[in-house]
Write a sequence for this structure.
């Protein structure tokens, strides 16, 4: 069974199809990089896989179950454009909150552990409002990894991250992949993404123009996929 | 093809309406209220049409949420708009009648007030639609709102009834003074109003469909 | 059990965030105070009149001030895209909604309970004659306000003119509930017991609360994810 299977989904905005018969799969331990121009449908696709909105046709299966099922959501971690933590709460409070929502056995222990792994244990009682941008981003990463998801969905994860946060994230993602976890990420930063990616999918106007393994060629010349399969 | 049917129906509705106005005007004056009583030929059918419209809007809204088919959404907005127009007609004719019989344009009596609250309720539906850009979200939120509004209608009507009642009892059922041979005219006018409403809804429906097509073409053009 | 624990976690989160900044509750209470003051300026009311119109006056204040709290409810989730994280968590839309409604309920009720003595002092009017009955009406009316306000807060959070849209959409729907609460409050302040002639209002209020709580719980998932 594939970790993530997108089975012919269509998403319409009114009559306009933003996604057209998209079919993609990612096996356990794979890292799928979704590339494509702005407006190609990367974010729309990821949000449907994450269960934030529904496709009109087709289905998404994560280990064989629908994204909105409670069990599925326990297994999925998501990092979007925003950091998705509360400014008015402290770093620790934020992580304990999400730990409780995910039904972790010991939310406080997991929270402290992830604060340490992201280098935030020193400021754990500081309000997020007072954090620097890099600290906020590392906290966002901790929030997404807190419940040890087996599927990670990342929407433009490297955009707007500082170098330390990128390093933290890349280390964590590598460890996750080595652990057999699955990553689907949309990205503009081809170089960072392709280093991690085992597979690449190119979206052009809501359709999959290319879907295959990531080759050494592609890593050497990130523009290659666009040049070969895109619209030039 | 459908265009022709629409024209024919529209003309038929107008013809019946004109004929009705002509015959109603020639009916004798009602014994107690005089000429203004005849406003009932318009006042009541408008209210009934508006109520049917609200019910259809509910069905269309539930239909959209279940199927995500935009035909239901277009129907819901068309029916709500036309229903609001008829309810406005109902309010205005009621107010004119009130001026003649009660001597005041507006009384906070149960039915006038209920009608006004319902009008505001469904006006909110249109405002909500106008504020949302993305068609799928607009249709979903509007459908949810329509369900909330429809559930409120009976609660509003009953609670305002408890609040106060000065409105004349229904003239058909409560032994009012409606001459029996006028029923025929009433039913004809009911038909004319319903037909007129249906044609307006059909026109609005097609407008909505083209609007959606236009919107998708614009998105397509932006995506190029 | 799991469900109620999640409801509680969401409610506690909202309340904690609110008490840190006190944005909504301060604004709401200040607004209530200003309206009460304006009413006193606008109408130089003798005590008997104040008693008769107390229900109307109070609930207009509560509805206006409550809207400020309710507007913040989902708007609070906008910065940093926090709503995404809540929707992604294995929490049902119903639990999320109920948790937020509960937090709003506590906040609106708090504003009301502080406004009540202010109203009493401004108008030289005792409201404690039938305090527990009044509290019951307050509890029921406020739950109606909160249930509708919270679901519409979710509905309007991403749209243009959010602050204006919320009251425009909620007040017409709230007409029956507010009317019932006003009638009952006036009667109670005037010293009349809840009896044969106004029991119907109490039942209507309960019915309103139950029906709309149920409908909101059913539809909230649709509002949140489509």
């Amino acid at each position: 069974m594939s970790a993530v299977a997108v089975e012919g989904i269509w998403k319409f905005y009114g009559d306009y199809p933003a996604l057209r018969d998209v079919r993609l799969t990612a096996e356990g331990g794979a890292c799928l990089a979704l590339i494509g121009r702005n407006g190609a449908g990367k974010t729309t696709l990821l949000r449907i896989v994450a269960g934030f909105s529904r496709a009109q046709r087709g289905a998404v299966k994560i280990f064989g179950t629908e994204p909105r099922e409670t069990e599925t959501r326990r297994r999925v971690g998501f990092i979007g454009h925003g950091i998705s933590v509360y400014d008015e709460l402290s770093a620790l409070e934020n992580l304990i909150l999400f730990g409780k929502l995910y039904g972790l056995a010991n939310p406080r222990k997991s929270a402290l552990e992830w604060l340490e792994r992201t280098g935030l244990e020193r400021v754990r009682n500081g309000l997020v409002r007072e954090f620097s941008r890099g600290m906020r981003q590392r906290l966002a990463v901790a929030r997404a990894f807190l419940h040890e998801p087996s599927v990670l969905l990342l929407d433009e994860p490297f955009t707007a991250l500082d170098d330390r946060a990128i390093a933290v994230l890349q280390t964590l993602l590598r460890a996750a992949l080595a652990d057999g976890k699955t990553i689907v990420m949309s990205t503009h930063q081809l170089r960072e993404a392709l280093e991690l990616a085992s597979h690449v999918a190119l979206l052009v106007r809501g359709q999959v123009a290319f879907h295959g393994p990531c080759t050494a060629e592609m890593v050497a010349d990130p523009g290659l996929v666009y040049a070969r399969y895109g619209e030039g | 093809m459908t265009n022709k049917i629409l024209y024919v129906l529209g003309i038929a509705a107008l013809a019946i309406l004109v004929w009705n106005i002509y015959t109603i005007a020639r009916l004798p004056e009602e014994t107690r209220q005089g000429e203004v009583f005849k406003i009932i030929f318009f006042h009541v059918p408008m209210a009934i049409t508006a109520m049917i419209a609200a019910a259809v809007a509910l069905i269309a809204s539930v239909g959209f949420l279940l199927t995500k088919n935009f035909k239901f959404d277009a129907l819901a907005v068309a029916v709500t708009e036309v229903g609001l127009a008829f309810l406005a007609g109902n309010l205005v004719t009621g107010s004119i009648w009130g001026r003649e019989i009660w001597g005041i344009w507006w009384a906070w009596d149960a039915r006038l007030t209920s009608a006004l609250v319902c009008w505001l309720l469904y006006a909110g539906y249109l405002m909500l639609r106008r504020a949302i850009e993305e068609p799928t979200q607009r249709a979903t939120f509007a459908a949810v709102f329509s369900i909330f509004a429809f559930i409120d209608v009976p609660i509003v009507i009953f609670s305002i009834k408890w609040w106060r009642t000065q409105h004349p009892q229904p003239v058909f059922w409560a032994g009012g003074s409606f001459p029996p041979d006028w029923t025929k005219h009433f039913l004809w006018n009911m038909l004319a109003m319903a037909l007129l409403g249906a044609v307006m809804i059909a026109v609005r429906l097609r407008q909505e469909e083209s609007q959606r097509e236009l919107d998708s073409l614009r998105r397509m053009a932006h995506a190029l | 059990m799991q469900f109620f624990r999640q409801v509680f976690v969401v409610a506690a989160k909202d309340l904690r965030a609110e008490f840190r900044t006190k944005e909504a509750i301060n604004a709401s209470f200040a607004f209530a105070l200003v309206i009460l003051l304006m009413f006193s300026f606008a109408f130089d009311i003798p005590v008997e009149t104040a008693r008769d119109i107390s229900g109307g006056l109070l609930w207009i204040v509560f509805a206006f001030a409550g809207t400020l709290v309710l507007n913040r409810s989902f708007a609070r989730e906008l910065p940093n895209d926090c709503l995404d994280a809540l929707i992604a968590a294995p929490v049902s839309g119903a639990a999320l909604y109920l948790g937020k409604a509960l937090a709003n309920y506590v906040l609106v009720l708090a504003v009301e309970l502080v406004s009540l003595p202010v109203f009493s002092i401004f108008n030289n009017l005792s409201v404690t004659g039938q305090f527990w009955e009044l509290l019951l009406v307050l509890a029921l009316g406020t739950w109606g306000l909160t249930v509708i306000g919270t679901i519409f807060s979710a509905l309007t959070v991403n749209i243009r003119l959010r602050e204006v849209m919320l009251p425009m959409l909620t007040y017409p729907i709230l007409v029956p509930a507010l009317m019932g609460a006003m009638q009952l409050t006036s009667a109670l302040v005037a010293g009349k017991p809840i009896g044969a002639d106004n029991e119907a209002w109490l039942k209507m209020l309960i019915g309103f609360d139950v029906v709309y709580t149920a409908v909101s719980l059913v539809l909230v998932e649709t509002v949140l994810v489509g």
